[in-house]
Amino acid sequence: MPEITLKGISKVYRTKEIETTALDNVNLDINHGEFVSIMGPSGCGKSTLLNIIGLLDTPTAGTVGIAGITAAGMSDTRLAHFRNEHLGFVFQNFHLIPSLSVYDNVELPLTYRSSIGAKERRERVEAVLERLGISHRIKHFPSQLSGGQCQRVAIARAIVGKPSIILADEPTGNLDSAMGEEVMELLHSLNRDDGLTVVMVTHNEAHARGTDRTIRFFDGRIIS
Amino acid sequence: MKKKFQQIFYDMRRRPVITGITLTGTAAAVFLFMVFVMMQAVETMPFAPESCRDRIMYGRYIETAWPGAERMMSGSLNFDQAAEIYGDLEGVEKMCNLDGWADTEDAVGPTGTISQVTSRRVDSGFWDIFDFTLIAGRYFTADEVEAGMMVTVIDSSSARRFFGSAEEAPGKMLDIVGENYRVTGVVEDVSPLATQTYGQVYLPLSRIHNFNSGDVALLVKKGVTRESLQRQVERRYDALNARRDTAEEGIYIYHGQPYDQKTVSGPVYSNWTPETPAVDWTTILVCVILLVVPAINLSTMLGSKIQSSIAEYGIRRAYGCTRSRIFADIVAENMILTLIGGIIGITLAILFVYNSGSLFAFVGDSAEASVRPPLSLLLKWQVVALALGACLVLNLLSACIPAWKAARTAPVDAITARNR
User: Fold this and answer.
1) Does the CB of A12 have a partner CB in chain B at under 8 Å?
2) CA B287 vs CA A97, B46, B236, B294: distances in Å
3) In what order do the strands lie in the sheet with B62-66?
4) pTM to 2 decimal places
5) Contacts of B315 in chain A (CB under 8 A)
6) Is ipTM over 0.85?
7) Whether the Cβ atoms of residue A5 and residue A165 lie closer than 8 Å to each other
8) pLDDT digits (tens, 9 = 90+) for A89-117
9) Domain residues of chain B, as ranges?
10) Residue A138: C-alpha distances to residues A75, A98, A125, B6 (Å)
11) A116-119 CB contacts, 8 Å cutoff, 24+ apart
């Protein structure tokens, strides 16, 4: 059974003057453990699709299924819990919370999960920071880190809750090529070693070639 | 909680102007609110020796009118009227006679120096109702008052002025308006803001030396309402009037006695029924304005601060934070900031009120002097609770709308700040 199922997804942005179709009847299945890249020109709807898969945005039409559960009709609270348990996000500009230390940023998803106590939270955060090689920066703040370190922290935050899916929106877009390669290697290792499903939006052909499947977008439609 | 403080300190560093204005605005709002509240509280809040203000009622004045004739007479109660109208009322624990007005009189000590003192005439029951602190000697007794003995209790400042110290004063003679009084005791100074009890020398109020009894103070039992006493007193008026020769003696006109502290803190006249509305709308309106106006400004600033970091709330929501928690977090963070501002505001308010005696020129016998309110009044838990309440209201008024807006922003809009 696919890990992610999109059926007839459309997204239309309406203002008083204009109507913009960002996604037009998108149908897509992504299997568990698959590493999928999404490519296309700017404004073609890639990020909108990722946001809809991440349940951060709602489609104008169509249904989203994650891990066999349809998101339609879920309350906001239920959606929040669902995202917390199943999804991890990595953004182009990291989106770390500047007032929080590396430790606190990584701990964030766990603080919204009442089933995990403080001791387990600490163990998990320390383990994931150790794995990503940034445990020496545990007390630092985002402003004290390099771009590559920030993205590692963001990935640590994405995986600390042990989600089954990682959604990465141009994760190497703000990094130099060496750092970009390191981040890609990290995502591949999470996919390969941990069996995580990874969906990545990218403009980088080389990075896309390294994934299991590349979906190409144009004007809100999948073209290949 | 640690993270909330972290966030606040981060905001202070990142947006020092907005955070500074928020803190200053909050402090100023709480300062103004508390100065206003303290000015009100000084008239009604209990403090020594009027520590039971909520249980003390006053019988004051009596008016006589002749029906059909344009003739009336009003003034102080005499001893018989006081006893007949207010004696042995149900629900009253203790009663005393006291002069409602303090007088300024010349006093001459052993050294011959003439000095003006504020005197108040009271009977021995006065010491049982009001909690003075006796420093030396003793209070004058009922026997001494009834016998018309020339005795007096003086305050510690007067004791130092006339006799060098409080301990030296008991037993010594003090000349007050040409009469020699023997000092029986010395009490701690009383603030002129204690409008019903303030005095520097207390003289016996007795039938022998005084025609009128002045006022009556009643210490009522807990839970006894003013209304229940009013009903009894009105019945006493009716009973007295029934015995009077209306044409010759006239009838007593009832004016809502006994009066509570709130009533006597306002204007009370002998031929007029004072209005004591259950809800003081003017005070409430001023309080609301003092809180709502700054709250609107603070709310605008908080809204702009939240918008500048709206992506952060989007990220939190992406990782599982619910709307209600976003709302609660913003309100809680703002509450901490409001409390910090509130503590600054209340501290400034206490210092300002304590050092600005002229603020209280309108209160009772303090009219001619700059009066420093007792710290015990300003530091009462009720005052602190009011300040905290003001902070809470200010916080809720200023934070709720921006917090609600932030919580309602869709995660994707917040992350991409599309709504800005």
Assistant:
1) no
2) 39, 21, 40, 12
3) B71-75, B62-66, B251-253
4) 0.73
5) 89, 95, 97, 108
6) yes
7) no
8) 999 999 999 989 999 999 999 999 989 99
9) 2-48+280-415, 61-95+215-258, 101-209
10) 35, 14, 9, 16
11) none
